[in-house]
User: Fold this.
Amino acid sequence: MTDGVRLEPALLARLGVEPAPATLLQFSTAFCAPCRAVRRISAEVAALLPGVRHVEVDAESHLGEVRELDVRQTPTLLILDAEGREVRRATGVPTKPQLIAALAGLLQR
Assistant:
């Protein structure tokens, strides 16, 4: 769990994040096999849970934002609440149940 710092709206806009009850913000690179797995799992969870949006960002094309958010490896998945606060962060490939559990609290608010 992170400290829930609200990300700057301008930063979120540069990354293509639009308002949603919950956002899965994924940082990937072109030749990252685990990134493809996270993309699939995140898309499935977003399709399953109303109010969840999945946004995938090419880390190499957004180096300034990657540094600002202290993303150190791909895949990195940030879970943002409706206010744009980072409430969780995961590296590697989460399971679908882990992702659903991490989102459950946000969607009940």
Remarks:
- The two ends are 17 Å apart (CA to CA).
- The helical segments are 9-14, 33-48, 63-68, 96-107.
- The chain has a mean pLDDT of 94.
